[in-house]
Amino acid sequence: MNQTPKQVCVVGLGYVGLPLAVGFAKHLPTIGFDVNATRVKELQDGYDRNDETPEADLRNPNLTLTTDPTQMRDADVIIITVPTPIDKAKRPDLRYLISASQTVGQHMKRGAIVVYESTVYPGCTEEDCAPVLEQASGMKAGVDFKLGYSPERINPGDSEHTLETIVKVVAGQDEETTEILARLYGLVVKAGIHKAPNIRTAEAAKVIENTQRDLNIALMNELAMLFRALGLNTRDVLAAARTKWNFLPFEPGLVGGHCIPVDPYYLTHKAQEVGFHPEVILAGRRTNDTMGIYVAKETVKLLIHAGRPVRNAQVLVLGAAFKENVPDVRDTRVKELVEELHSFGCHVEVCDPVVLESDRRYIPAPFVDDPFCTRRGHYDAVVLAVPHRIFRERAYSDYLTLMSALAQGVFVDVKGAYLSDARADTSGRVLYWNL
To answer: Looking at residue 16, what is its pLDDT?
Structure first.
């Protein structure tokens, strides 16, 4: 195959796969395959529960959404975009990747190109996935079918940095495959295509993107804890430091989700496999993994300072998702925050109108739908953990109405969304804290 492919199949229709399938369907016949029948039925009905894809795009006649793997048999290129999580021991969990590879191997045609977009460690595509494809298909990689890797760079909830506007890295197991993939992705990605020299390089590039971000946020989190001990406000320090042209504008926060808290462990796994101990990467992970617990402990200290009993204290946590304006609760640090508050005897309620009701079970606390109407004056402390747009639209005074007037309240504003309002408040009604 020395021309642009005529049909594409995308395996996995989550945050990564669905935009990809929709994008390709604007240019050529595209199959979107997923094993989750509920997800596929919703998409067929024009509904994306992640609220990322318009109904019109889902109803494009060029896009076939299916749970039937035989539909991929005519695809020239099959792109695998399944999750790559970690297990409880923080080791790479490749079960979804291996399962998808088995399915693809059983149904792909001779001459197809199989591309992986899932985040993996260097060598995974050729050393772990290729043998599965070969065994399932009875064909030989590099002879009967070709391999490629193009790391996903989707940022959920970000309308500025989209599939079309982010440079795409592509790599094939030979030069011809790389050129084919460059032409294919070039149909959708307008920001440009970067051709990596080989698959392992492309894999490594992806895994360090999120590792770098994780480490920079870990540094900010450690500095935030230090500045708190020094009596300084982190936001003031960062505002001053940002006036230098080469200061990197990272901020402290709760690092969650399916990418940043996970990807560094794929790199450290491979490092330890070759006898290298990645001290800095693991130190950063330890810092970020404990930030939910740190925020909970700071909340407890503030309750004590405000003269409110910690045991049986009524605490409202606003936001449960791993980041602003997305419904995803995977690996959210809010879970540890809530658990730590429970360990001190606090009664915790959670409000997050962005998170789907079916996903609330992952957070160990009861949810309230509209505390600003139904729980006014009820709480000893309010923790704005994830400042969704719907929360930021609220006035500072709205948060004060949530707190009991019997004693000084506590307002924990993790990302400092209301710092200027809190400084202008001279009433003394609340103790305000930000990370």
So the answer is: 95
Beta bridge partners of residue 409, listed in sequence order: 430
Distance of alpha carbon 323 from alpha carbon 254, whole angstroms: 8
The residue to which tokens 């193009």 are assigned: 150
For residue 1, what pLDDT is reported? 53
Q: List Cα–Cα distances, 294 to 182, 347, 398, 414, in angstroms.
A: 45, 18, 26, 11
Select the CATH number that applies to the domain covering 8-196 from these four: 2.60.40.10, 3.40.630.30, 3.40.50.720, 3.30.565.10: 3.40.50.720
Q: What Rg do the C-alpha atoms of the chain give, in angstroms?
A: 24
The continuous run of DSSP H or E covering 201 comes out as helix 199-230
Residues of the chain with pLDDT under 50: none
pTM, 2 dp: 0.93
Would 8-196 and 290-433 be classified into the same CATH topology? Answer: yes
What are the residue numbers of the active site?
Answer: 259
Spatial strand order of the sheet with 347-351 comes to 347-351, 314-318, 381-384, 409-413, 430-433
- Per the CATH hierarchy, to which homologous superfamily does domain 290-433 belong? NAD(P)-binding Rossmann-like Domain (3.40.50.720)
DSSP-assigned letter for residue 127: I
